Amino acid sequence: MSLSIDDIQAPIANEMTLFEQKFRSFMQSKVFLLDTITQYIVKRKGKQIRPMFVFLTAGACGAITEKTYRGASLIELLHTATLVHDDVVDDSMYRRGFFSINALWKNKIAVLVGDYLLSRGLLLSVDNGDFDLLQIVSTAVREMSEGELLQIAKARKLDITEEVYFDVIRQKTASLIASCCAVGANSAGASPEMIAQTKLFGEKVGIAFQIKDDLFDYGDAEIGKPVGIDIKEKKMTLPLIYALSKASWIEKRRIIYLIKNKSHKKSTVAEVIAFVKEKGGIEYAEEKMMLYYQEALHVLKNSLPESSYRKSLQDLIQFTIERTK
Predict the structure, then answer these.
(1) Total domains, the chain
(2) CA distances from 109 to 98, 104, 105, 211 (A)
(3) Coil vs helix vs strand at 263
(4) What is the pLDDT of residues 211-252, one digit of tens each?
(5) I want to staple 276 with a disulfide (CB 3.0 to 4.6 A). Which of 7, 257, 269, 281 is the partner?
(6) What is the CATH number for 191?
(7) Distance between CA 52 and CA 113 in Å, rounded?
(8) With 0-12 CB in 10 A as exposed, 13-18 as middle and 19+ as buried, what is 4?
């Protein structure tokens, strides 16, 4: 039986509806243009996976409080700010099938909107004395920036090892989900030990989530992102890193030459995908993803008491690795 977001959300359905209202109010501005843009952002938000991690962790740790709403809003404000800036940097015209902010209102306005969202998040925490939440989330944003820069630096030489790859995704993706869980636990008044465990749980989920995302690049259908997009962007992901480690020196040199110089060609993308599949890169990445999934489950079951919230957290991680987009 496939899991649906509505089923997973069941224990926090009312809280998520209330969160939508509170989040909208936290984004409001007296400047008409800004208010128009923030309303557009709210309307096109996705599955709300990050706030779900915050609320479910808070519930599993004891209680959902006003601080939980502020923590979830802080994460969404800061994360949305980074996405708006990312679209400018990448010159992306679309996000989740909608026009990006820079596509509709140009780069200058998009950068200023990102800055505004960042400052709203900071002020939300400062005005309420949530300095502990601010520290958790600011650390995640710093790690996300460092991970992205590390990936860019390594992409130039295409010399990413498996160890560096895990460093990159731990910072780029896992740090954010880890901070969602830590914020949820903190807002419920959990002990420092429990907060540390929920953060570890979130990190392992985040790594499994990113490996799943990397595997989409080798799919046979147009799903979450176009097939082969990582190859075109010269990103070294786990299936490719493993395949290169199993290749002869000549094969390795040829594949790296193709990615460096001809990754814009469909024939190159097809050849690299075939090479990765032949060397067992897909199976290896799937094994690693399942390993982190099992480790996340282990941490969850050993650190949080049994409850409907914990069950939904369990289902949510299953959903993230079984998703088709």
Answers:
(1) 1
(2) 17, 10, 6, 33
(3) coil
(4) 998 888 787 544 445 567 777 777 788 999 999 989 889 888
(5) 281
(6) 1.10.600.10
(7) 25
(8) exposed
